[in-house]
Automatic annotation (TrEMBL):
UniProt entry keywords in alphabetical sequence: Cytoplasm, Decarboxylase, Golgi apparatus, Lyase, Membrane, NAD, Signal-anchor, Transmembrane, Transmembrane helix
Membrane disposition: Single-pass type II membrane protein
Residue ranges occupied by any NAD(P)-binding domain in the UniProt entry: 11-305
Keyword presence, Calcium: no
Entry EC number(s): 4.1.1.35
Cofactor or coenzyme needed: NAD(+)
The protein, known as: UDP-glucuronate decarboxylase
Main location group: cytoplasm
Pathways involved: Nucleotide-sugar biosynthesis; UDP-alpha-D-xylose biosynthesis; UDP-alpha-D-xylose from UDP-alpha-D-glucuronate: step 1/1
Enzyme class of the recorded protein, top EC level: lyase
UniProt-annotated location(s): Cytoplasm; Golgi apparatus, Golgi stack membrane
Entry's Gene Ontology cellular component terms: cytoplasm
UniProt organism field: Candidatus Electrothrix aarhusensis
Entry annotated with the keyword DNA-binding: no
Amino acid sequence: MKAVQQKKRILITGGAGFLGSHLCERLLADGHEVVCLDNYFTGAKQNIVHLLENPYFEVIRHDVTFPLYIEVDEIYNLACPASPIHYQFDPVQTTKTSVHGAINMLGLAKRVKAKIFQASTSEVYGDPQVHPQIETYWGHVNPNGIRSCYDEGKRCAETLFFDYRRQHNLNIKVARIFNTYGPRMHPNDGRVVSNFIVQALQGRPITIYGDGSQSRSFCYVDDLIEAFVRLMDTEDGFAGPVNTGNPSEFTILQLAENVIEMTGAKSEIIFESLPQDDPQQRQPDISLAKEKLGWEPKVSLREGLVPTIAYFDNFLRGIDTWSVRDI
Ligand code: NAD
Ligand code: UDP
Ligand code: UDP
């Protein structure tokens, strides 16, 4: 454990999820006390089971759409299903999670004077007409389509964060996260990296939606968590929003080819129809993160795919997956 100047009690909502579990690990390693809150909608105890023995780690089963009265120094608000099949499963609950969840966590932050971080998303840019996306771009979002519960919920959460800042002088930090991957991604959540790796490892066809010319920029989880911690540590006057992601852009076809090559799979590629409102291109402009956080991603797509493929390989073999990062 590293020496810390000040041990803080930090609440992470959505702490049993993919990103949340990595953040729990990181903040404990930095010497803090972590309170992990989750309702296990898409998260899993398995993601945090290795932390349960740590006396500075505490878990609360709770839904952020309900009020929460505890005492903390900082809050990372990550609770929200993040993949289309999960956030579209109960879209009203998705909007409630973003909006009521933000209100409750902001109310908590206001009462206990805690600094609060919001996991926003590149989806606030919708299907962008400006490329790469810069924070000053207002986006191109369908307000009533099947992705709107997520996109508009997250946009409203940003509004609430900035209004609590203006109205109540809260110390807020807003990160706009671009596609991130790594160990502990949900194997069945339909996201492209997990889908392709699982399909390849099982020798099943790789399903490309559309013609595969659409692009995404994939960030490895460790790089992203570093950006979260740095953003939380920026000076009080800085709130963001800040794009956090890896600017290296790949088409979905290129991703499929990389996964097939790296897994040695014999899978064929099949083309299926493109979902409604699927963004054609996405790439962060990270100039602001470089300037304010002194941060840029270090892990290339091929480097990050190695532990991610190992994680899913172990998962599919039924081997304990939480320790895979030590392999
Ligand atoms: P995830 O689904 O693994 O994690 C979300 C966690 O929130 C889960 O553990 C889930 O059980 C929990 N949760 C959902 N609704 C809740 C509620 N009402 N109350 C309490 N807990 C609840 O997804 P993730 O990829 O780890 O995403 C974490 C955050 O980052 C989300 O807010 C997501 O919108 C954001 N984000 C992620 C990405 C990405 O590429 N992974 C990109 C942009 C934004
Ligand atoms: N809240 C909470 N924990 C707290 C304080 C507030 O969950 O420690 C919730 C509560 O549901 C409240 C919401 O946050 O309705 C917003 O709080 P705020 O003080 O901003 O507004 P108000 O209490 O006036 O609605
Ligand atoms: N995608 C795909 N095959 C899959 C899953 C996703 O071609 O099995 C595509 C999807 O249509 C989108 C891209 O990959 O164009 C990224 O999808 P994901 O759901 O991972 O992220 P998001 O669309 O939210 O950026």
